[in-house]
Amino acid sequence: MRREIYQSIKQIPREEYMAGGTGLCGGCGGLLALRLFHKALGPDVVFVNAAGCLTLLAVFPFSPFRSSWLYTAMASAPAGAQGLRDALDVLIAKGKLPRKDDLQVVVVSGDGAAHGIGLQATLAAIHRGLDFYYFCYDNEAFSNTGFQMSPASPYGSRTATTPATARSPAGTATPKQDLFELWRVQQPAFLATVSPAYPLDLMDKVARAARLRGPKLFISLSTCPPGWGVDPAESVEIAKLAVDTGVWPLKETHDGAVVHTVVPHRFRPVEDYLRPQTRYRHLFEPVRQEAILRQLQADVDQYWAHQQDRSS
Amino acid sequence: MTRDLLTGNAAAAWGARLAEVDYIPAYPITPQTEIIEALAQWIGKGEMDTRLVTMDSEHAMLTAAGAAAATGARVFTATSSQGLLYALEMLYTVAGWRVPLVLVNVSRGLSAPITLEPDHNDVLAARDSGFLQLHAETCQEVLDSILIAYRLAEHADVLLPVLVNLDGFSLSFTREPVELPALATVRRFLPAYDAGGAGFGAHALAQGVAVLGGSAYSFFKYEMQRAAEAAIVTHADICTAFHDCFGRAYGMVEGYLLDDADWVVVMSNSFSTVGKAEVARLRAQGEKIGLLRLRMIRPFPHREIARLLAGRRGVAVIDQNISIGKGGILFAEVASALCGCSAPPLLSFVGGLGGRRFHSEEFDQMLAALRDAEHQGGSPEPQLLYSAAEYAHMLDMLRIAGHVGTEVANVRPAESVAHAPSEK
What we know:
The complex is a heterodimer. Chain A is 32% helix and 14% strand. By secondary structure, chain A is of the alpha/beta class. Chain A has one domain (26-305): Rossmann fold (3-Layer(aba) Sandwich), CATH 3.40.50.970. Chain A has an eight-stranded mixed sheet with strand order 2-1-3-4-6-5-7-8, with helices on both faces. In chain A, strand 7 and strand 8 form a beta hairpin. The longest helix of chain A has 17 residues, at 77-93. Chain A is globular, with a radius of gyration of 19 Å. By secondary structure, chain B is of the alpha/beta class. Chain B has two domains: 2-246, 3-Layer(aba) Sandwich (Rossmann fold), CATH 3.40.50.970; 255-411, Rossmann fold (3-Layer(aba) Sandwich), CATH 3.40.50. In chain B, 41% of the residues lie in helices and 17% in strands. Chain B contains 14 helices and 16 strands. Chain B has helices spanning 8-18, 33-44, 58-71, 81-86, 88-96, 121-124, 139-154, 183-189, 214-246, 271-284, 302-309, 329-337, 360-376, 388-400; strands at 2-6, 23-26, 51-54, 76-79, 102-107, 132-135, 162-167, 176-180, 206-207, 253-256, 263-268, 289-294, 296-298, 314-319, 346-350, 382-384. In chain B, helix 1 (8-18) crosses helix 2 (33-44), helix 1 (8-18) packs parallel to helix 7 (139-154) and helix 8 packs across helix 9 (214-246). In chain B, 52% of the residues are buried. The model of chain B is unreliable at 414-424 (pLDDT under 50). The A-B interface holds A 46, 48, 55-56, 58-60, 63, 65-73, 75-84, 86-91, 94, 96-98, 100-101, 103, 120-121, 123-124, 128 and B 22-23, 25, 49-51, 53, 55-57, 59-61, 63-73, 75, 89-90, 93, 192, 199-202, 204-212, 216. Strand 2 of chain A pairs parallel with strand 9 of chain B.
């Protein structure tokens, strides 16, 4: 699919809205994606945060943002966005706040808070047609508490609460819950998956979504070096492999149809993505778990076989 | 000014309307629902310039309320019982944001067993959250307390949310004459909220951020404690201004036939009206008894309570709540207020749970128990009010439910109306 606004890496604004030197882990894919996300949105933003890794961005008395930040709780960041959006609208309408002080309201949540405890508040905000952005950094576990399984943890991955054992050789035995589809049935104004390894795709989606009113929802697969067991320097490469193997399809929907925005010309084997990560090491050592590896490749093949636009 | 017959819920809705609130996140729950229904009607008809949004839970409702207040809007919301507890995480959270919203709680007993009728375990579960608490006895006081609550919450020395409590059914659904003040007078008492640039907008603001270590955490919690303490003085000033504007006087506590009383019963909320009638009856029989009604529960007016109770011959605290394994919550709080002064004998009675009615005989019994305690000393153990007739009725119901024989023996109270504490 043709990008409309961001064609070249040189078009990415040089302005930084977030300072470096935060307390987050080196190579955090969520932080990189958020940095790009913020560049696409511009400076007039208030982030409404649910408990997670990125909560540690703003630790008193420091904030890395030139924009604003409200930490809420684990379950209800979208409700905080509702109150903020409504209050801005009401105060502007009553002349109590100048229109130039208006802000774009952005929920920032990990997959742990997006899938289970926070799903109700999110679906309700989408149902109400709230004009807001939702940025979910999906590192496929409760990374902030030491990498426990979340509903977003993929089948076959090891987490602290789904260890790979003789009784449970796959580690996580359940499939990754499909947040994109859970959100899509509500017909939000804009919904997309993104990756920090594909910055032009990410920023183009945000810029095009900005033309629309209503819920604008983004899920970024976000490498977690300590949880996934990769070197921080490999963070972007791993994120790229997720896309190039077909494991993390980059797609969007805003008028009913789902469109894939980046489709590899030749899909690399899923193993290429799995092997560098220690969370999948039990699939290769001490013996190859062929059945699980075949299943993981088959799941990806089956997904793409069902996509009408795979050649776009 | 007009005078009307209003339910407690209607009076609460009028309080929000007269305060000209900007924003109301809402979620229904009995017995509060009538409040948000009335507000939705007025907004729908264009009689209020307010946005009302129905949320997906009380937890979300309080989050939205806090976020809107942090943006600079005047915010109202209401709940009851299970809803208040469902929102409890966010009560602590938004209080920490130091936002001046007003939350009405219509008291209702907590599950299990599930019930609709009132007691105060719900509102007292929120007592440590940072919300200040005003407890109303009458429908007029509900309306007045909401206006006072906004001025208190928005005061620069306080900046804490305020919870206004009224009892379900006995106040929420009971019509009483209520004076509706003129909007112009209310505006003089309560000008439009000005967050003074502290809300979200042009300049970067980080709100609710994490802290590392106990020093920073303690600092902000102590700041809240100091603000709550400051609310004692601020509330008194506001009540003076309220009296000047509307002619009605309120304090942190209310004394009824208290000045020369030897014996005092301490109560709160609408059941105080029952207590006052009993005190008047006993006065007519020559008993020097009075009543102290607790109106402001947070901040807790220790000094005022100690001043009013010290030197009495006996004090009975009647709790319409129960801390399982401890007893009456307000008894413990009143007892702590009397620490370090010449405390009178103090007795704890629990009654009125789940809307249970008080009986005149129970007040006779409590007075008799106070006389005994004057010589034998008080006991901190709670006395659980339950009548022989209730017990007989309960046994009938247990039999209908299929229970027979031994298992009911465990719940049998003492022969007297009030369960006697163990002898020293």
